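Re: that chain you flagged

S.,

Sorry for the slow reply, it's been a week of failed gels. I finally had a moment to sit down with the sequence you sent. For the record, here it is as I used it:
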Amino acid sequence: MDVREACARLPALAEARESAAAWRQTVERTGRRLTLGAWAVCLGFTLLGAWFAVGQWALYRLAQEAEARLLAK
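Prediction finished late last night. Pasting the structure tokens below so you have them in one place:
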């Protein structure tokens, strides 16, 4: 009988191994969720920044047109 067979026969060690495996799965699942959440937050800030930039560009164009109308009078 080798060491692995002996370890597999110990009930407390088997329970500890199962508990550690369950904990590892929980940690990995939480890590994936946090990673997806971080990507979602980054995407949200990117879209918010793009929306702000487009708004600034539109205001700049409107100001140019208003200035051109004033100078044309």
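What I noticed first: Residues 3-72 form one domain.

Talk soon,
D.
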